[in-house]
Amino acid sequence: MKNVTLARWGATNALGVLVYVFLLATFLDKASGWFGQADQKIITPMAVLMLFVFSALLTGGLVLGRPLMLYFDGHKKEGIKLLFFTGVGLFVFMALAFMVLLIMK
């Protein structure tokens, strides 16, 4: 794979994580209005922990899935580069989010 293709895949993976995190944050922001106060002592922690596990699965797949496939298929350099490009994409999106927070302050 060329570095440009790897950079695109990395940006796409990071964008996928960004979209998922945005949707999850929106859901969590609206959840108390939809579900009300948590009266169930066991259901709420179970639901939150299941959401955490699902989030780890989804974001782990987006960040690590293709790089690990490349790595184990013998394309070790490409797998590591893709993981790097994905990390750079995530860092850029995180930095942009903090800049927006600073600007909105």
Explain briefly what this protein structure is.
This protein is mainly α and 105 residues long. It contains 3 helices and no strands. It has one domain.
Describe this structure in words.
The chain is mainly α and 105 residues long. The protein has one domain (3-104). It contains three helices and no strands. The chain is flat and about 55 Å long.
Secondary structure: elements and pairs:
Layout: H1 3-35, H2 43-72, H3 76-104
Helix pairs in contact: 1-2, 1-3, 2-3
Poorly predicted ranges: none
Largest sheet: none
Counted by DSSP, the helix tally is: 3
Mean pLDDT: 91
| Alpha-carbon distance between the two ends | 43 Å
Tally the beta strands.
0
- Structural class of the secondary elements? mainly alpha
- Strand-residue proportion: under 5%
Count of all domains: 1
> What percent of residues adopt helix (DSSP H or I)?
over 70%
Shape: flat
Report the C-alpha radius of gyration, rounded.
17 Å
Series of secondary-structure elements, N-terminal to C-terminal = HHH
Features:
about 100 residues, mainly alpha, 3 helices, about 90% helix, about 0% strand
